[in-house]
Design brief:
Elements lengths: L2 E5 L8 H16 L3 E4 L5 H12 L4 E6 L2 H4 L8 E5 L2 H11 L2 E4 L4 H15 L7 E4 L6 H12 L5 H4 L2 E4 L2 H9 L8 H4 L5
Parallel strand pairs: 1-2, 1-5, 2-3, 3-4, 5-6, 6-7
The structure holds adenosine monophosphate.
Length: about 190
């Protein structure tokens, strides 16, 4: 992987374990020559991961819609900044620029981004690994909800298994390297669960 897109919150709660995980992820990415692609903001977890990568001499590439430049305080020290027209273009370009995706803790925006690229993977529109960095059990309930969806036959186990997760950045990246997407068309062939 040459670049990883990180979805994450525009807020930060001051959690020490989360800060450590962000720094550890940045260290691994820089050591393995993996660029960061992210939402381009200077605030919250977004700003922390960008600064952690840049401070270690890595590359950080931002993708931000013009109208969010002020609101999310566009980061001015990035290796590259793409200013796009809207949220859809943002996600599209972030996905095009990366070889894999990691989701850190965040809010609605983070989950929206995560589920959209996950849906694209399920549909075979891309074949990139998608990981949840489950720091301190932050995503335990979300993972549990996915199991509830499987138990209720709204989600196929094969699609549930597309979601890679680990509390440890290196373990998550290893899972991403070993990931093989479903062959094209599998989702459509066996779509109905009942
Ligand atoms: P949040 O997790 O709510 O703090 O949001 C994290 C990031 O997701 C912020 O940069 C938001 O601007 C961004 N975001 C929210 N909704 C969307 C969307 N529909 N498409 C692209 N980015 C989004």
């Amino acid at each position: 992987m040459k670049s990883i897109c990180v979805f994450c919150g525009a807020n930060f709660n001051g959690d020490v374990q989360l800060k450590q995980a962000i720094d550890h992820l940045a260290e691994i990415m820089v050591n393995q020559n993996i660029s960061l692609v992210f939402g381009g903001g200077k605030v919250g977890v977004m700003g922390l991961i960008a600064d952690a990568v840049l401070q270690r001499g890595g590359k950080a590439i931002g993708v931000i819609p013009g109208f969010l430049m002020d609101k999310e305080v566009g980061h001015t020290g990035l290796t590259e900044m793409h200013v796009v027209e809207n949220m859809h273009q943002r996600k599209q370009l972030m996905n095009e620029l990366c070889d894999g995706i990691i989701t850190l803790p965040g809010g609605f925006g983070t989950l929206e981004e995560f589920f959209e690229v996950l849906t694209w993977l399920q549909l075979g529109l891309h074949h990139k690994p998608i990981g949840l960095l489950n720091v301190n059990g932050f995503y335990d309930f979300l993972l549990k909800q996915m199991d509830v969806m499987v138990a209720n036959r709204f989600l196929k186990p094969t699609n549930r298994n597309l979601v890679l997760s680990s509390p440890h950045p290196q373990e998550l990246i290893d899972l991403m390297y070993n990931f093989t997407a479903l062959p094209d068309g599998v989702w459509f062939k066996d779509q109905h669960l009942s």
